[in-house]
Amino acid sequence: MKILKSKAMLFIAAGLMLWALLASACATGLTIGNRAAPTPTPTLVPGPSDQTTELFAPFWQAWQLVHDKYVDQPVDDGALMRGAIKGMLEALGDEHSAYMDPFQYKDATATLQGEYEGIGAWVNTDGKFLTISEPMPGSPAEKAGLKPGDQIIAIDGEDMTGILPELARRKVLGPKGTSVVLTIQREGEEQPFDVEVTRASINVPSVTSKMLDGNVAYLRVYTFGETTTSELRKALDTLLAEKPVGLVLDLRNNGGGYLQTGIEVASEFIDKGVIVMEESGDGTRENFDALPGGKATEIPMVVLVNKYSASASEIVAGAIQDHGRGKLVGETTFGKGSVQSWIPLVDDQGAVRITVARWLTPEGRQIHKVGLTPDVAIALTEADTQANKDPQLDKAVELLTLK
């Protein structure tokens, strides 16, 4: 891009940059949640209006001053443009809206190779930093002493501040036998500390199940992935054959996953009605209803949740609570109820992630930044964990077996 000298050229360039930014919003990305959207035909945004021209005058003045005055010339126009986009997204004040430069976007969207080789932990990518939801049993993460709530603030010495957690997650993955050093910020610890973890092949199901004392069925759903629904239905077949008096659905430390999977899972317990509503910025709402054929729509149930139950977990728990299908036991949930779309920018200039909607429970309750309040609030302390006690699960069983 040539240095702009005339006011007319500044305005023309302003229009071109606006077109590049706004026309790209017509392209389609992947909705975090994850619901694909139809691909519309990109359309040109009209040239800048008088109001837009006036609004952007200070920007282009600053652009010109950098080219005229900055000590180290020539400046990188591409880097300036990408920095402007990044700043614009940051100015929204929404931690879930962000910009990925072309290199980060290519890395984040590349096909995973050896996707089951890593440290073995379920993670939450919805906060400021990549956060451990729960180490998988017997995994390198568990053996290294990682705990739920641990924030990964650096990877192999590289500061993760300002790096999208999804990109940080991919940096943790790697070939089995190799090591990665994670710098951990842990609640209750004054200073961050390093943990070295040796990667391994990880192949853990997203659903586990068993029968508890009192003839109560227990289902643990760790994530909402591609195979979760089929795993859940198989587990339900086995459990329901035992004719249990009730069922515990454990969504603790479940950071979410695919929206469609969340709807499918909820539909196993709710026979009809709205599972979740999606509210757009203009106030319009789209309902997602229960799918037919649920296997456990009548059995009494209790759902376990905690502060790391997020996103699709909150959709399922909120639907069960609103429909009166079961009580929530545990702690107030994470509060991730917004929907993001990845939208590639023109000329391979990366992508923007923009919050495009919010999820509401069937009764229209807000999830985002609020979370779900349990019907029975019970904490699970570090002392409980060390003593191999689970008062939350105990309470769930008590509610289901109380005569």
What does this protein look like?
The structure is a single chain. The chain is α+β, with helices and mostly antiparallel strands. It folds into three domains: 7-101, no CATH class; 117-201, Pdz3 Domain (Roll), CATH 2.30.42; 207-335 and 371-401, 2-enoyl-CoA Hydratase, Chain A, domain 1 (Alpha-Beta Complex). It contains eleven helices and 20 strands. The protein has helices at 7-23, 50-69, 77-90, 102-109, 140-143, 165-172, 228-240, 259-267, 312-322, 382-386, 391-401, and strands at 31-32, 98-100, 117-118, 121-124, 130-135, 151-155, 158-159, 179-185, 193-198, 200-201, 207-212, 216-221, 246-250, 274-280, 285-289, 301-305, 326-330, 338-344, 351-360, 376-377. The strands form four sheets. Strands 1, 2, 14, 15, 18 and 19 form a six-stranded antiparallel beta sheet that branches. Strands 4, 5, 6, 7, 8 and 9 form a six-stranded antiparallel beta sheet that branches. Strands 11-12-13-16-17-20 form a six-stranded mixed beta sheet, with helices on both faces.
